[in-house]
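Fold description:
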Amino acid sequence: MHPAKKRTRSYDPARTRTAVLAQSDHVRKAVGALTPGQLALPTRLGEWTVRELVAHLSMVVGTVARNVTLPEPPVREVTLLEWPFATAAAAGAVDADTRALAAGGAAGELFTRAADAMADALTGVPDERLMPTRVGAMSVGDFLVTRAVELVVHTDDLNDATGLAVPYDRQALAACTRLLADALAVKAPGGSVEVRVPPYAVVQCVEGPRHTRGTPPNVVEIDPLTWVRLATGRTGWAEALDAAKVSASGERADLAALLPILG
């Protein structure tokens, strides 16, 4: 697990809950209308079809309902800034569970049940309560930030695979952008490069001379969805540069070796 030395950004718990429920509702409306042909389409996620992707989205929200009712762990084991670096170890188990779930029922109904269960389970649960997760015990509030990340990332996967235009809740996209930007600053601590993802995040990273005033010598500017795709390996650095999706100036403003962050 990568050490989280950076001070953790605070997230408004009420806004995070609202964002997660809103994004899950966007997904619910989309997957409920998918045809068998759309469910069979390939995705950019290896061998997963849209059916497996929807099953995974069901797991993303369903794990909240399942785990928040389990006995509370005695201590926190994973902080929010450690979570992006802890997920890779669980990839194999996630894939196996996703395939098993996809084989078990109608995709739209599966997600609807999971989303409803999440909304019901969160009623009256304090954000400070600890809950078990696949990567270790986290607070409910922190885990919901990770659900915002997963929902945004996989909504983008769904749009890419189907050609749909499932919307992104603004607060969910903001949380996703900020957590992945902060994780970059943890992975490459320093102050020689300023990474801007307007309007949601600005972080400094990469060892080297730190600027103190005016325009920094090394600047990267990216729109939120392109940043999410770079940070999760959906697109490559060179590809984004060639498509003019990234503006990078300065001899240190090359993030290729630091990406992706979240596998």
Summary: The chain has two domains: 13-172, 188-258.
